[in-house]
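Schema walk-through. Below, the input block comes first and the output block second. Nothing else is stored per chain. Lengths vary across the set, and this one has 653 residues.
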Amino acid sequence: MSDLLEALQSGRESGRLLESSKANIEALLDSRPEDVERASIEELVAAGDWEELNNRFFRTLAFGTGGLRGKTVGAVVTAAERGTPQAMDRPEFPCTGTNAMNYFNISRATQGLVAYTREWAAREKLPHRPRICISYDTRYFSREFADLTARIITDSGCDALVFAQPRPTPELSFAVRQCRAQAGINITASHNPPPYNGYKVYFNDGAQVIDPHASGIIAKVNAVSTAHYDPLPPEERGERRELGVEMDEAYLDRLEKVVLDPEVVAAEKGLKIVYSPLHGVGASIVMPLLQRLGFDVTAVPEQLVPDSRFPTVKSPNPEYAEALTLAMRLADKIGADLVMATDPDDDRMGVAVRGRDGRMELLTGNQIGSMLAFYRAQRMFDAGILNDANKSRGVIIKTFVTTDMQKAVAEHFGLRCVETLTGFKYNAAKLRKYEEAIPAGLRGDYAHLPEEETRRLRLEHSSLMVMGGEESYGYTLADFARDKDANAAVAAFAEVVAHARSRGMTAPEYLDDIFAVLGVHLERGESLVFEGAEGAAKIAKLAASYADNPPAKMDGSAVVRMENFATDVIHDVEGDRVPAEGMIIFTLADGRRAAVRPSGTEPKIKYYIFGVEKPGGSKMTPTEVADSRRRVQGGIDRLWDWLHADAVRRAAE
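--- output ---
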């Protein structure tokens, strides 16, 4: 032990080991570490791999407002971690480190969450033990992390309701509400690369936690310094129960209600769909859902198999064209009109559609959301759900960095457009507000009321969300699940394409028809990636530079407005204060806009660029739409070139 401590001290004195890394390593060594943890540290020290040690230990993985996310497989896998060979090239043990997703951090997070939940339940005087639902995806260690989480929950006096099989993130949200649980945990890293995993926390409304619960949970987690805990006596422990096919069926029943016009779906039997779950959990719900609705759906066979390596894609992210390559190839082979793919935890959806020229065309998240918003608003008016008397209660919810085309949709139909920060927890907070605005005596057991009844109550006493979305391919179409829901989005977008076909239009033509009415809105999203401890510091420095030294001009156009969400007091259209966040939005004199925001879940700083050209007073012709597209696209491309060059200069200063 003394030799190891001396080596750590030597690494620190030479400047190769950060002070924070040394302190975190020593703290772990003092906390009764597992044999594999001690052996991994010794191996990396002996190899002089100070960079890997810094990346693993420069901080303790922060439990943020959404939970945890980090690497569960290190860039360097030690012999101790590799252990006995496992399926799909998985190490036997997760990555050792205070900045990694492993049993140490899973235990800390669960101990803190349970402590907070038990105290909250006591204050609320619950007549039963607190219940916590647990779901997990197909990533490395997801099942093992879920089992450890369940054991800590039951050992600590709460009931653990665990999905029997890997299931989608939105189904976890739905289950929390259906089971009347007090919290939920999903073990997933969404669309991150294979080495990552995560731990997402939900509260009793089925939404990811926000304040005051978020701060309370974070404080409890931060107070836990060790993976070890003392179980309660057997008679005081909770029970573990499985969630199985009955939960799938209840969820599928509600998802079917997302379709607004079953007749148009039934009439368009010729619509062929290709679907890919990108090796994740989506097929468990998407395939039976589309088949129930009567769609002709074919899955991509190579990507139907759950695989933590995601071997057929560079990234399991449906935002990227490459992830849809196999699906588009299959669509060409079988003559399908629509391709849809969901990310590994099935909360995001990407789309490709066939145009009049016969080629498949990828749609952006902004375009998908705008088509959903326009169609659903129009269909709700056509069906009499919305009318002139109640349209003021209709709401489209979008993030500040999502296209303003959805704001234009709201204005066109006389609806309200509410903008939130990035993260569906803020969308869900609005849904909770709308639910609680219904008189308590009328809403009763709201989560178990039929969809038609909750819709009536919202329209008569509160607000009805027509569509909620964000540019990064996340959408919500109803409030029975309080997170982005790719299953609902798949059903709803298939209905949009069926509607376009019923009018003799392709999906791209339908989008252009909306552009012709509302104006051409185009966007571009870009990111700069900075990995590890050094990268985190560079992202923070770059983000701060925009606040400290904002540009007066961008691409030759004056900056006429700057909104700093970290320091400015900003309210939304409903008068609610927008929480502080590290984001700045610049508006230029020529109407273009640019937003800069460090990612909360990935080692990136993100840039969002917006351009628009409105009609001159009447609906644009197809030729005018095409010309406008070229002008707007050119403007946002030039703005990105300027931003990129400026960011390189700022990062080098």
